[in-house]
Amino acid sequence: MRLAARIAFAVVVALPLLARAEQPLDRWLDQLGRPFVIGIAGDSGSGKSTFARGLTATLGADRVKVICVDDYHRLDRQGRKAAGVTALNPVATDLDRLARDLGTLREGKAIQKPVYDHSNGTLAPPEAFAPGKIIIVEGLHPFATNALRDKLDLAVYFDPSSRVKEGWKLKRDVAERGHKAADVRKEIRARKPDFKAYVEPQKGAADVLVSFDWSKQGGKLTEELKVKLREKNLAPTAQRVRVNKSQAGQFVLRAERRRDGSGVTTLDGALPASVLARETSFLARASGIKDPEVDRKSATLDGARVLVSARVMRELARKAHAR
Asked: Positive or negative CA dihedral for 53, 26, 305, 3?
């Protein structure tokens, strides 16, 4: 096995619960006896929705249902403008209803979920929503209140640098939502105080913090990402792995478990396709799912997705065994 493959493979193999193929994902979910709920928080344009789609592919689309917190807006776009508030201000969103709905879904019951139409900024008629075995709640405020945090099994916060976030938000809002670039930049500046006040504080409640910036090589920024995963409350048996550089020199990976039970994993540069394929293949075998497709253009984020998926499975196994 190539050194690069052994490096990334070891990061996943070092997670003992994940490596036990006799405890597949569906068995853990059945043993848990309710949906496993994951919250993914972060600013607008931080990559939450893209990551949620990738996590869904990894864990199995037939198992996962996704809720966007935006659907719980109390005010439509015109209503927010008239009230002088942004979508980042929790008063514009019915977080109490979201918490109640998550409680109902955890009981295995369906809900009438509200719907927000991003194409025109209006509130659409509600729709029936049945729980999946895994529920992902992604948006600006999925664990902004104690009531919401109590409904989650794992909280993940996305924290891109300002330059990465602005570039992604411009690409999404201009290309996908039809906004003008000048208006998007103006909105970014106007929303910053609310982001600091209402969204960013969720970082402190996150079990997994995913931060990223453009990677530097030779003192210059590249088009590749440097991703860091900071995890709380790792299992005592998680092994420490330190690696400086792959054989091909294409990426830097460091993973360690600290004395306080936290862990940091760094993926810097383009993760080789062979490494990523081996990681995703192992995760798929351990969970009994089909190997997910991987976007080779965003390999470091895909590597982060695989590691977050592994954390999901450890938490699920731990809670299932505790019942």
From this structure: negative
